[in-house]
Amino acid sequence: MTASGADRFGTEDPAPVTPPPEPAREQVRRLVLDGAGGAVTRCRDFTAAALAEWGWLPAATPEGRERAEDVLLLVSEVVTNACLHAGGPEELVLRHRGGAGRADPGGRLRIEVADPSPVPPRPRAPRSPALPGGHGLMVLDRLAGAWGSAARADGGPGKVVWLEISRPPVPPAWNPSPELGSGPPGRPGRRGAPL
């Protein structure tokens, strides 16, 4: 090979081939709920800690902060529905897949709540937004990218209610650092800081 990139026969080597990006790895967090009280609070706190580990919190942008708040609200709604209508939540599973290029620059979060009831969630008849209760599935429709329910993968009784939400793209200068916390550029964050 010569300095010009041609081999000794005068032919150019093809441009180096850049391997395709590795698919984003899924990270999973599980919280088994033992029937003790405070399931909604425990699930929100567990989710907030996972979001901090995955760099969603503290948020780099107002849109990111809003999305993280949406995630916590959605967890509260799904867990509350399991408490009120399905015999109580048995397990919360969070599945995070980081961004993988232009099609999914920020990543996705899948939230799953297992409960003992085989009955899928059903929207109630429309009612006044001024009245309390009965709005959980409307919140899911509005904030989640997709949601539904399925039989439990382990074959056990009951179902899993799941939802997915995408993370907004992270600004290019945003680079969470374990040493400094994970604050936006020019403003170091504090690990575990509240929203």
Q: How does this structure look, described?
A:
The protein is globular. The protein has 195 residues and is α+β, with helices and mostly antiparallel strands. A 5-stranded antiparallel beta sheet has the order 1-2-3-5-4, with helices on one face. It has helices at 39-53, 62-85, 136-143; strands at residues 26-32, 91-97, 108-115, 146-151, 159-166. A hairpin with a 7-residue loop joins strand 4 (146-151) and strand 5 (159-166). The chain has 3 helices and 5 strands; from the N terminus they run E-H-H-E-E-H-E-E. The longest helix has 24 residues, at 62-85. Helix 1 (39-53) packs antiparallel against helix 2. Helices cover 24% and strands 18% of the residues.
